[in-house]
C-alpha cells in the first residue's frame, strides 16, 4: 500500500502507523522482530504526511478503521514531510485558508469534497433522467447577465470589453427554443464586494431552462430538484455527514412540496417579526434568515417587486408592480440557494426593461430575437452549488464548500 502517514504510535517492539491513500484509512502494524532493520529505522523517521510504501498481509479486524489491519513485512519512505503546517491542534481560519492546498487532506475537508461531488452527480442525474439536454454556455460574454455592478471585465482584442459570465441564462433561453428542456452548469463570476459567508466571486451554478413552463411549473421543478439532491446525499454520504457531525433530522424534512409565500406576505410576516423591511425593498440576508426560520423546510418567496429584480423577469399580469419570479430560501440560516423566474416573452416589454435599466441595447439584439421569432412561455432558475453544499454539510461558511475559494481577499492558493 502507498499512502500518507496520519499518526504513529509504538510500544517498544510493536509499532502502529495509520495511513490514508485517498480512498480510505488503514492501520499497519510492524513488529521489530519481523521486519528488516532498514524498515524499523524508516518507521522511526515517520512524521505526519510522510508518503510511504508498506508491504504486508491484510487481515480482518472489526476494531480497526476500515475493518482491516495490515501486518507489515516492509516499510519504505517515499517522500519525507518535515513540519507539516497543519497539526491536530486548532488553527485559525486565516491560517487554514493560506494552507488550503494542504488543508484539503484533512478528514472534514475530504468529507465536504465528497458531499459536493455527490450533489453534483445528483444534479446531472436528475436532469439526465428527465430528458434535459446539457448546453455549455460561454464564460467570456458580451452582454451583462445580471447586474452591471458586479462585472469582471477584460479587454477583448478589437471588440472592446468581454465580461466573465455572471450567468448562462440568456444563452440557455436560446437553447430552450431548440431543445425544449436544457441546462447549463459551470463557474460564474461576480465582482461582489460583500464579505458575507454566503458570497464568493467565483461560484458554480446550475441553470435549467424549460420551454412551455410557467412560474408555478418552475417552482415545482425546483422543489423536486432540491429534494432529490438532498435525498441522494443523505442516502449515499452517511459516513461523510457523520464525520461532519451533521444533524440529519432537518435534512430528512426536505420533501416536496415546499411552502410558498408571496413577497407581499413575506413583508407582512417580517414586519410582524420586527424585521427592518418596507414593501418595495429587496429582502436582505438577515431578513431572509429570519423568514426562513419560520419554516422547517425550504420556503419559496415569489413575485418580488419589479424594481429589485433583473430585467428579464416577466411582469406579473395580476400586479404589474411585481414579476413572476421566486427565490428559494434554505432553512437553518443558509438563505437563498435558488433564484428563478418566468421570462419576459413580450418583445416590447422586454425592450422597455432593457432601456429602463440603461443596458446597451445593441448587446441584446440576439436576445430580443427570441421574442421576435416565435416567442414562447418559458422559465428557469439558478442553483448555487456552494450554498447548497454548505447547507447540506452544515458548515458555517461557503468558502469551505469549494476546493479553492475565490473571494474579495482570496486569490491564492
Ligand atoms: O439569483 P441569481 O443571481 O440568479 C441568476 O443568476 C439567474 N440568472 C438564474 C436563472 O434564473 N437562470 O443567482 C442564483 C443563485 C443564488 O440563489 C445563489 O445560490 C447563487 O446563485 N449565488 C451565489 N453563490 C455564491 N456566491 C455568490 N456571489 C452568489 N451569487 C449568487
Ligand atoms: Mg438571487
Rounded Rg: 26 Å
The 3D shape can be described as elongated
Give the strand order of the largest sheet, numbering strands 1, 2, ... along the chain. Answer: 6-10-11-16-15-14-13-12
What gap, in angstroms, lies between the N and C termini?
30 Å
Write the H/E string, N to C: EEEHEEHHHEEEEHEEHHHEHHEEEHHEH
Q: Helical proportion?
A: 25-40%
The name of the CATH superfamily of the largest domain reads: Bira Bifunctional Protein, Domain 2
Q: What structural class should be given to the helix and strand makeup?
A: alpha+beta
Q: Can you tell me the CATH architecture of the largest domain?
A: 2-Layer Sandwich
Give a written overview of the molecule.
- The protein is α+β, with helices and mostly antiparallel strands and 413 residues long.
- The chain folds into 2 domains: 2-79, Nucleic acid-binding proteins (OB fold (Dihydrolipoamide Acetyltransferase, E2P), Beta Barrel), CATH 2.40.50; 101-401, Bira Bifunctional Protein, Domain 2 (BirA Bifunctional Protein, domain 2).
- The protein is 31% helix and 25% strand.
- The protein is built from 13 helices and 16 strands.
- The chain has helices spanning 37-44, 93-98, 100-103, 107-129, 169-179, 215-236, 238-243, 249-252, 263-272, 285-292, 347-356, 365-372, 385-393, and strands spanning 2-11, 14-20, 25-31, 51-60, 68-79, 133-134, 140-141, 153-155, 161-164, 181-189, 202-211, 260-262, 299-302, 325-330, 335-342, 378-384.
- The strands form 3 sheets. Strands 6-10-11-16-15-14-13-12 form an 8-stranded mixed beta sheet. Strands 1-2-3-5-4 form a 5-stranded mixed β-barrel.
- Strand 14 (325-330) and strand 15 form a beta hairpin.
- Helix 4 packs across helix 6 (215-236).
- Bound molecules: 4-amino-1,4-dioxobutan-2-aminium adenosine-5'-monophosphate and magnesium ion.
- Residues 146, 167, 169, 190, 192, 199-200, 203, 205, 207, 336-341, 380-382, 384, 386-387 line the site of 4-amino-1,4-dioxobutan-2-aminium adenosine-5'-monophosphate (4AD).
